[in-house]
Amino acid sequence: MQISYSQPLSAGWNRMKKALFQPFDLNKWIRVGFTAWLAGLTDCKGNGSGNNSGQNNWDEFFSFPQTAKDWLLDNPLWANLIIVGLIILFLIITVCLWLSSRGKFMFLHNVIHDKAEISKPWHEFRKQGNSLFFFEFFFGWFAFAVFALILVYSFVTGKNLYETHAPKAVIFAGITQMVLLFIAYMVVFGYISLLLKDFVVQIMYKQKVGVIRAWGKFLILFSKRALPFIIYGLFIFVLGIGVMIAVILFAVMTCCIGLLLIAIPYIGAVVLLPISYTFRAFSVEFLAQFGDEYNVLPPAVNLTEDMETEEK
After folding, report:
1. pLDDT at residue 228 tops 80
2. Cα(211)–Cα(172) distance, rounded to whole angstroms?
3. CA angle centred on 152, ends 147 and 154, rounded to 5°
4. Is the pLDDT of residue 229 over 90?
5. How far apart are CA 82 and CA 20, in angstroms?
6. N or C: at which end does the chain have fewer Cβ atoms within 10 angstroms?
7. How far is CA 137 from the centre of its chain?
8. Using alpha carbons only, what angle is made at residue 277 by residues 203 and 38, rounded to the nearest 5 degrees?
């Protein structure tokens, strides 16, 4: 079975044009944009004296943990306020994650059926949304813990290299190791998040199962056809760079007014709806290539099959 990338992308693009521009309906944009916003809620840069200054900066940097600890002990009121702030932040993140988990099914539902529904998918996929929330909650904090450990390891390693005045070759090797560690972290956890959002959610949607069972079904497929999904991640990465360039050009051409609109919560999701809609439709069309078991599209609106029929 030949797996295509351009054909599903073209089908996703055509689906987006049909849904959002044929005809253009502002009310539909606002409603579908709301579900897209919910779905991406958590997806929510000398001289001699200069050398001495740099050395002092490094001294301050590596002594920061002890300095911060002493400051917190000397200012218990501020320490308590910071703790309260962190608790509030934790609650906000948790609520946003819950809303986003439900929103992913709402947005997927609207893309699949060319709808602008909010209430129906919100209630219909309550169990799947809650299952996804619990998985993302624990997975997210696990990823955060791993990231914190990498930061601590990098900080301790850098401090040891600095204090022991290690040779430049040793420092270069240490920095290279830390950079590779961060890259590995981003690739591994980035791929897991991408596969969850783009494919596991589809299996949950189609088969009305929880996230663990959906992961099990997807991993069976992944174990047989890993390469297409790995290439898919690279393809999405390249497309993301292209979208970023397009957004920057859009901001420049609109004298940054467009950038301000994109930065406003919800309004930005509506402005960028053609992009998020195309990406979501692309993932749907891509997974449909692996068989009916993974095809969430109603046969009457399967644009990939329509395109293949026209070509024949």
Report:
1. yes
2. 43
3. 95
4. yes
5. 45
6. C
7. 14
8. 75
User: pTM for this one?
Assistant: 0.82
Q: What angle do CA 25, 30, 36 make, to 5 degrees?
A: 120
Contact 270, 29 (CB under 8 A): yes
Question: Residue 157: which pLDDT band, with cuts at 50, 70 and 90?
Answer: confident
Instruction: Please state, in angstroms and rounded to a whole number, the distance separating the CA atoms of residues 113 and 110.
Output: 5
d(CA 287, CA 91): 35
By C-alpha distance, which of 97, 118, 116, 102 is closest to 41?
97
Token digits of residue 89: 């932040």
Statement: residue 56 has pLDDT above 60:
no
Q: Tokens 């997806």, residue?
A: 43
CA atoms within 13 A on the CB side of 191: 16
Q: For residue 238, what are its two tokens?
A: 């390249």
Q: Which residues contact 290 (CB under 8 A, 6 or more apart)?
A: 1, 3, 221, 225
Distance in Å from the first CA to the final CA of the chain? 17
Q: Cβ distance 218 to 203 under 8 Å?
A: yes
Give me the amino acid identity at 276: S
User: What pLDDT band is residue 59 in, cutting at 50, 70 and 90?
Assistant: low
